[in-house]
Amino acid sequence: MHARDSLDSAGSIWHLIAVHLRRYREMHNMSGQALADLLGCDRSTVSRYESNRLKIRREHAEIIDRTWGTKGMFTDLIGFAERADEGDWLMELSEYEARATRIRIWEASVVPGLLQTPDYARAALTAGTEDDPAAALERRLARQTAVFEKMKPPRVTAFLSWVTLAQQVGSAEVMRGQIAHLLKLTELPLVTLRIVERQAGAHPGLNGSFKLLTVDHRDLAYTEAATRGRFLTDPFDVQEVSVRYDWISDIAAPVDASRSILEAELEKY
């Protein structure tokens, strides 16, 4: 069964957009390749749009609205879908992470999932509300593999609050392994870790953790909450998160100093 055959246009706005995209394309006797040429993308992107494996870009929706005379319908539907914040956000995050060429992370409380050891991840997931921690652990490790073991890994920059090191997750042995893993990651040429120390005081990062993902030459923002994450694709929203990231960068310890902080924390365990 094709992915598009499982779309539920009555239960999801994103599914509705995908269904209408294919319906209008066929109504205008346009092939998938012809639509791809119109949008300036490849045929596989159109296929992912129509199966909802990829959310349609706003600029592509605007081109479609102008070309097909739909009076802003696709653009408006994207706005409604983004505000509804629906869908399998974790699956969407995994897909974007795997395709990203650059990942920027701010983490205020725990080591980010992409940087966790299996033992740390297991301890964190077991302490949470996961119905199936073992399955959740498998998904988390699969995300790491998709990012760090692909042919061209992304540039990863992570700012970690001092709280992520002070908050013990699991046993002392688990923490020792986790901090040793972070130190090992700092040796990778495409990974940068910097610590925001306690004396940095109040700053915009206290509002919550987030990621900035560069996918297909554009930036997406992902913000975290207690029960689910949310993607921000509107350029103004993404810019606001980018400004917060730059502000945190201004107060984070330099790379060498951050490594020294990690080494000192490792000694404590």
List the helices and strands and how they pair.
Elements (H helix, E strand, L loop, with lengths): L12 H15 L4 H8 L3 H9 L6 H11 L4 H12 L4 H11 L2 E6 L10 H10 L5 H16 L6 E7 L1 H4 L5 H14 L5 E6 L13 E6 L2 E6 L6 E3 L2 H17 L3 H14 L1
Parallel strand pairs: 1-2, 2-3
Antiparallel strand pairs: 1-4, 4-5, 5-6
Helix pairs in contact: 1-5, 2-3, 4-5, 7-8, 10-12
Can you tell me about this structure?
It is a single chain. The protein has helices spanning 13-27, 32-39, 43-51, 58-68, 73-84, 89-99, 118-127, 133-148, 163-166, 172-185, 235-251, 255-268; strands spanning 102-107, 155-161, 191-196, 210-215, 218-223, 230-232. A hairpin with a 2-residue loop joins strand 4 (210-215) and strand 5 (218-223). Strands 3-2-1-4-5-6 form a six-stranded mixed beta sheet, sandwiched between helices. The chain has 269 residues and is of the alpha/beta class. The protein has twelve helices and six strands. It is elongated. The protein has two domains: 7-84, 434 Repressor (Amino-terminal Domain); 89-268, Endonuclease, Chain A, CATH 3.30.870. The N and C termini lie far apart (52 Å). Helices cover 52% and strands 13% of the residues.
